[in-house]
């Protein structure tokens, strides 16, 4: 079935359409279409603490366009969530209310732990033994979420105020880096090697530029090289010579540094990049909720999708 998720991050707002189905007892999430607009709410929030009128207007325009696409694609159900920038903005309630008034899209602001757990929910990876401990690392514009799982069991999860936009604005405090390092310390000597799994657009782009096409793993040394190589170009050169989008060319270097520190401080020698993100987690969890209800919303019945979502809460 077709399910859609809207991920409103600190850097961009994404509309993700996915075909979700089950195969041999596993829930499979396959991308059908993805639209991404760099609204960059974090530029306001991490500097001033609130979302400006111009950013709100851009967000409304973006979500209005997404609503039209949703009406055309007709997914069975959809949901919109917002992360670090929105949850830290002092005017977030007003923004959510205004967006709903203008677009009809209700935004759920989720905390860092829920964000981490939503990302790691999508765990049907080929060639990885289910009993292995997996560390999911999702780097966003405003925060980094990490979750440790073994099969369906969540061992631990945490959210850190370390993100790419926040780093560009020099708003990451040293104590937050120290907290990340201390949180990872117990896992340096895990009895069995931990598999680190990276998610998000930046690690996907690094894998495309520097990874092996036949291997979804990126060695630590390759990650370090990618950071050094990218840093040898200025912003304009990263756009013109490397072909990066302007809204990717500036954040990819701080993202690489975050992943490097996570691997170094947890003593892990490589990172697995399955090309997943929060959007996958949104549709995965929606499918599970949908299945537990065991009911198919009627597409032509007014308010069915919204009322169904309310019943889940």
What is the top-level CATH class of the largest domain? Alpha Beta
The number of helices is 14
User: What is the percent of helical residues?
Assistant: 40-55%
Biggest sheet features: 6 strands, mixed
Q: How large is the radius of gyration?
A: 19 Å
- Characterize the quaternary organization of these chains: single chain
Instruction: Please give the order of strands in the largest beta sheet.
Output: 8-7-6-9-11-10
CATH architecture of the largest domain: 2-Layer Sandwich
Fill in the CATH topology of the largest domain. Answer: Nucleotidyltransferase, domain 5
Name the structural class. alpha/beta
Q: Give start-end ranges of low-pLDDT stretches.
A: 296-313
Order of helices and strands: EEEHHEHHEHEEEHHEHEHHHHEHH
Give the integer mean of the pLDDT values: 89
Q: How many structural domains?
A: 2
* Overall form: globular
Q: Estimate the strand proportion.
A: 15-25%
Distance between the amino and carboxyl termini = 22 Å
Number of strands: 11
- The CATH homologous superfamily of the largest domain is called Exopolyphosphatase. Domain 2
